[in-house]
Amino acid sequence: MRTTLIAEQLFDGKTLYENHPISIEDGKIIAFDTIKGAIENKVSGLLTAGFIDTQVNGGGGYLLNQDTNLHTLKAMTNAHAKFGTSSLLPTLITSDVNKIEQTANLISTALAQNTPGIIGVHFEGPHISEPKKGIHSSQQIRGISQQELDIYCRDDLGIKVVTLAPESVDCDIIKTLVASNVHVCLGHSNATFVQTQAALAAGASGFTHLFNAMSALESREPNMVGAALLDEQSWCGLILDGHHVHPSTAKLAYKVKAAHKMMLVTDSMSTIGSEQTHLQFDGHQISLTGDKLTSNTGQLAGSALNMITAVNNAVKMLNIPFIDALKMASLYPAQFLGIADSYGQLAVGSNADLTLLSSTHSSPHVVNTWISGRAIF
Fold first, then answer.
1. What CATH code is carried by the domain that includes residue 280?
2. What pTM does this model have?
3. Which of 13, 29, 262, 266 has a CA-to-CA distance to 35 between 20 and 30 Å?
4. CATH number (domain holding residue 23)
5. Is 267 a residue of the active site?
């Protein structure tokens, strides 16, 4: 069935249009015009590409680590669709090898079944640094075994991201991962500037939640933060909830780093899209107070951030135009993952992953989200 949406405003990832049509068929965008025989619907607000979240631990009351099944993935995508996310990478936090393999098999099944919103997987750890582990389990932190390397190099997992600490993983292994289409991100790391630069030279292309759980910029040692901000090719994820990074620190980073290399992530836990206010994770008692998740140890424990809030926060905290914040939630993550031909912007031939926002004024909210042309929210 052909459908034409005539949007009050339409942002295709580059240009903002007024009263503009977009036509969809079989889950793809087929024209930026009305099409004969199409069902036409006028929509109020701003229509834009669906958001892409590369770091999603849970949602809808479920955590991937705890309930590693298709029901959890569907609950996560449905929960995040309420906030404009149309594509996500379910993220497994530091676990044993059996859980890693179980998660890989789950993602493979989800992709084979065309589960809406699931485009791959993010393994955040366990190949990280003890001093920067956050709430990750000390007992599970380790180097990469051949079994784990084989899992990450599978070709049935869609888009693959692995977060690791370069002081814990040899550059030759990073090269092997990159050669098998793994996007290597650096994070949960106490690496020096030189170690970080070596990992970048080996093919690492991103930094997981910039500033958080990584060696800080210092006067005599730039460390990982300094390397991340100086490098012109890599992407940085930012958690803009007002808790993980001070707004002025985030603003400074945005000014220093090329803007198109900064992307929004949520690092969200199971509370998103649910009434949940308390959860347990790996021995931690985690509580939601306002919009902040903390462990009984006092540490930040993931986030209660959703993507439209992150977009609105980017406008306020970074003092940038709304459409630039939209790029940080859609186009730039797509470019990081190498899928911008089909995701992250609206173009003929792209997936019909769309988000309709109430307006561009005073913190807009999500009205509708479509995944492959199908209304999910």
1. 3.20.20.140
2. 0.97
3. 13
4. 2.30.40.10
5. yes
